[in-house]
Amino acid sequence: xxEMLWETSVLAQAMQARPIGVPPSGVTGxxxxxxxxxxxxxxxxxxxxxxxxxEFLTAATKAGAALHVVAxxxxxxxxxxxxPMLVVDDVLxxxxxxxxxxxxxxxxxxxxxxxxxxxxxxxxxxxxxxxxVGTVHASAASFNNHWGVPLSLARLPAETRYAxxxxxxxxxxxxxxxxxxxxxxxxxxxxxxxxxxxxFRDLDEIAEAKAEIFEGVVADGTALLNLDDPxxxxxxxxxxxxxxxxxxxxxxxxxxxxRLLSFDPHPGGATIEASIAGEPIRFALASPGRHLAQNxxxxxxAAQRIGADVRAVAKALAGWRAVQGRGARHVLQLAGGGTIQxxxxxxxxxxxxxxxxxxxxxxxxxxxxxxxxAVLGDMLELGRxxxxxxxxxxxxxxxxxxxxxxxxxEEMKALxxxxxxxxxxxxHENNGELLAALLKTIRAGDVVMMKASKSIGFAGLIxxxxxxxxxxxxxAAASDMTDTDASGAA
Length: 490
Description:
This protein is of the alpha/beta class and 490 residues long.
């Protein structure tokens, strides 16, 4: 039986709610989605852009919800609802009040992560590493917006030792109210890059918006910044203006508090030597990519600042792997024999993350006769800078030694115009045409990397490739690829 997350009386008091019916003594979880409800959860009927949770109360009850949180003004339209309810003025505002109560009762050391790239990856690496030294709570998926952050906080168990929250934005003034709910002990900014540039004048404005995260840091807390980031100077100044005295740094530059000394990629991942607050440390990553080493430095820096056992966290990172859409690797069997390796970078894309993914592809080992193939789709929200930033990918593609490129999307036409005269490149109007061409082209030994902005739909392309080709186990793949097939880290 699941442990109680909230006593109903405490829940009602925190949200300023009034009960209807006979509520349970407590709830074991918080949900806003009937598809993921667990028995004993409280279902919050949030009204989103496309759906209103009040229309799904019956489904929530059938899924096992023990309690509904509903808005007062919706009551006349609800009719007879069998489950007990807590009635509030506004469900999302009530969730925010509950998140404040969760933060107030928590004794956890809390880390908040933002940045243009690497937020979710760093959050997941923190989750994995800190789990070796204590109980950890972290926001699910990319729950980093106006409902995802309070939901993640409301789900924070009282006795958790460490908690990690991702905070995102694509406009100014989005991070500020969220970080004031989280009130982290450590605030990490991974990197400032031209993501969402269509909503900002330049990188300086993006840095200023990301720096809102400093405004919620607790007294004597830490701002953890990337010393290699050209925006480091302005970010450090924003942190000082927010009253943060402890500004710690990670990166490769001399003087970084958490410094990368050497990075040795290999088919099984990478070996890293670093200096963590002056202490030498050597550890392994199961996923390659220099950008992942940077993320790992931020993880160890945060661990050091919150008093965790840094060496235990570093050792645990050897078992952490990139997740679906963010570098996960699949070894797939071809019908005619042999295998290919598929690198899934389908979750999102901007110029910085594209270049990092291309570097990963460049370091991947192909099998005998294999090629490095990049499958790229549009990077969105770049505004007037889009043509220049898409065309600018030609140089890192050529430098990476990529033999074949498939492109899809109107924005990628700018890259096709530049790249077609340099290497084998195909532009397709839609994903269906691209997939058909790709499946006809791939052969044993190839390494294929797929990346685009989320709404371009490359996650669906990945699913179709996985359903078309037969996945192999990691052990079998390592054996099969020794001589004739693609090899690389998973």
